[in-house]
C-alpha cells in the first residue's frame, strides 16, 4: 500500500511539472510569434537584450502594450522583465515583447518597421 501511494505521489508530481512546461506562452503563426489571441508581438530596438528592463514607458506603453508574462517558471528562450510600474512582462531571448495598438485583428503586422525600431519576432521555419 505504501509503495502504491509513493507511485501515486510521484506520478502527480511529474504530471504537474510536465503541465507547467507543456504550453509555451506564445505560439508561431505565419512565421512570427503571436499571443493567445493571435495578435502579433514585437520587439523594440531601444531595449537591450538581457538588460532586464523595458525602454517603452508611459505613452509608448499605451501604444505598444507590454505582453504580460504568465505566472510560474519559464523555460528558455522565455524570461521575464519587471517593469517600473510593477507589471511582469514576457521576454523572448532577453528582449521584452509588446503588441501594437493599431493591430486590430489576428495576423495584423502594422507595427513592423515603425520608426525603424519596432520589429515582429520572426520564427524560423522548421
From TrEMBL:
| Residue stretches spanning the membrane | none
What are the entry keywords? Signal
Q: Where is the signal peptide?
A: 1-20
Task: Return any one Pfam family short name.
Answer: Lipoprotein_15
Q: What is this protein called in UniProt?
A: Lipoprotein with Yx(FWY)xxD motif
Q: Which organism is it from?
A: Massilia phyllostachyos
Amino acid at each position: 500500500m505504501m509503495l502504491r501511494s509513493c507511485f501515486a505521489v510521484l506520478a502527480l508530481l511529474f504530471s504537474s511539472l510536465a503541465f507547467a512546461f507543456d504550453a509555451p506562452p506564445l505560439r508561431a503563426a505565419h512565421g512570427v510569434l503571436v499571443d493567445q489571441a493571435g495578435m502579433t508581438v514585437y520587439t523594440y530596438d531601444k531595449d537591450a537584450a538581457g538588460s532586464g528592463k523595458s525602454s517603452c514607458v508611459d505613452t509608448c506603453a499605451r501604444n505598444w502594450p507590454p505582453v504580460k508574462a504568465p505566472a510560474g517558471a519559464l523555460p528558455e528562450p522565455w524570461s521575464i522583465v519587471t517593469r517600473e510600474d510593477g507589471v511582469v512582462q514576457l521576454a523572448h531571448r532577453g528582449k521584452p515583447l509588446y503588441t501594437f495598438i493599431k493591430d486590430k485583428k489576428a495576423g495584423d503586422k502594422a507595427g513592423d518597421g515603425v520608426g525603424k525600431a519596432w520589429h515582429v519576432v520572426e520564427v524560423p521555419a522548421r
